[in-house]
Amino acid sequence: MEELINIFVKSIFIDNMIFAYFLGMCSYLAVSKTVETSLGLGVAVIFVLAVTVPVNYLLDNYVLKAGALEWLLGEKALEIDLSFLSFIMFIAIIASIVQLVEMIVERFAPALYQSLGIFLPLIAVNCAILGAALFMQEREYSSLAQATTFAVGSGVGWLLAIVGIAAIREKIQYSNVPAPLKGLGITFIATGLMGIAFMSFMGITL
Amino acid sequence: MSLFSSKDLKLLTNPLSIDNPITVQVLGICSALAVTVKVQPAVVMSLSVMAVVAFSNVIISLLRNTIPARIRIIVQLVVAAALVILVDQVLKAFVYEISKQLSVFVGLIITNCILMGRLEAFALGNKPWPSFLDGIGNSAGYGAILITISIFREILGAGSIWGIQIIPASFYENGYINNGFMLLPPMALILVGIIIWIQRKYVKKLQTN
């Protein structure tokens, strides 16, 4: 249990998807104009992460890893290492699950579907989703619970980042930003400063 | 038939300045910030992206009249993933140390917005040769920014470029210390902000209101 809380807090603050690894920056920059849409997108990302990372974890552990196919093919499977196929398998899973999520959201929350527009299907190519799956594989979490906690934590961290920058961008409209910096430039600098602030969490161990 | 008409030349030169994928189109930001700590990984990353973007542009352009609209994204992802697996294996074989430094970011070329962006915006509607040039041009623009950022970060953060010590030892003896901050992620963001500032000051029409 302690391990899970550790992973959860670590993935929100210390291994923050945006500030530590810069994953998901494109939609982060494009959607963060208002807090409302950022909140909607953030929740969608948490949901997609919470579904795709565990599925990819199962796929990695029972099909792709070296010797993983033992449960199906017996002894001779110990030689087989399919991990080079990870990229294509992970992205296929992610694309299909996002398609599913899109259909579910359209059916059960049409208002949210309308407000997210093109960005819902674009979650499939959000680097944060594939990145989380690859990190999960690299860090070799030892159980499904750990992988899921990592996924939800990363999503929450992403949500915090995008809502934060949206709030700042809404207020910055009323400041005297120099013309060449308006819009994109000042957002980058503000994100950099937020990143420095998040680094204060780096030395924390639980 | 000329291989390089003036229109084609524009495909190569526009992304270097006025239509730069990172500072103007806002694509490909993720990897641009993460791999620019030193110049070597930045160069390897730019070349990898160039290979993937250029060839997937060609493949999708050749297939453009046969892909059904509904599964467009899936076909693009499959082509991209296959090319990235190839590039990843080549990197692991020939430059193993650097591929370790790049870690997950080579895999993330699949979701690199430049790749998806150019496939959707250009390759699906144009012939193979212009698509190839467009891919090369955009990755060159991306690479230019990556190399610029990494030169600043490496020289200020470690006193070297490409691993070769530039700042002489006498500076260190007299009290000069490497700016450790440059090696950390947030500085990359601020550096891109400054590059955008400089670019928009001189190319006024890029400024937003």
In short:
The complex is a heterodimer of chains A (206) and B (209). Chain A is an all-alpha fold. Chain A has helices at 2-14, 25-31, 35-64, 70-73, 86-108, 110-116, 127-139, 144-172, 184-198.
Catalogue the unreliable spans of chain A.
Answer: none
Order of helices and strands of chain B: HHHHHHHHEEHH
Structural class of chain B: mainly alpha
Overall pLDDT score of chain A: 85
- Global mean pLDDT of chain B: 83
Helical segment tally of chain A?
A: 9
How far apart the termini of chain B lie comes to: 44 Å
Integer count of domains of chain B: 1
User: How helix-rich are the residues of chain A, as a percent range?
Assistant: 55-70%
Spatial order of strands in the largest sheet of chain B: 1-2
Shape of chain A: globular
Broad shape of chain B? globular
Rg over C-alpha atoms of chain A, rounded to the nearest angstrom: 19 Å
Number of helices of chain B: 10
Largest interface: A-B, 48 and 47 residues
Beta strand count of chain A: 0
Please provide a written account of the structure.
Chain A is an all-alpha fold and 206 residues long. Chain A is 68% helix and 0% strand. Chain A contains nine helices and no strands. The two termini of chain A are 12 Å apart. The model of chain A has no long low-confidence stretch (mean pLDDT 85). With 209 residues, chain B is an all-alpha fold. Chain B has one domain (23-206). Chain B contains ten helices and two strands; from the N terminus they run ααααααααββαα. The model of chain B has no long low-confidence stretch (mean pLDDT 83). Classes of the chains: A mainly alpha (206), B mainly alpha (209). The interface between A and B is large, with 48 and 47 residues.
Which key phrases capture this entry?
heterodimer, A: 206 residues, mainly alpha, 9 helices, 68% helix, globular, B: 209 residues
Helix-strand blueprint:
The complex is a heterodimer of chains A (206) and B (209).
Chain A (H helix, E strand, L loop, with lengths): L1 H13 L10 H7 L3 H30 L5 H4 L12 H23 L1 H7 L10 H13 L4 H29 L11 H15 L8
Helix pairs in contact in A: 1-8, 3-5, 3-7, 3-8, 5-6, 5-7, 7-8
Chain B lengths: L5 H8 L15 H6 L4 H25 L8 H23 L1 H7 L1 H4 L5 H9 L6 H31 L1 E2 L2 E2 L3 H5 L11 H18 L7
Helix pairs in contact in B: 1-8, 3-4, 3-5, 3-7, 3-8, 4-5
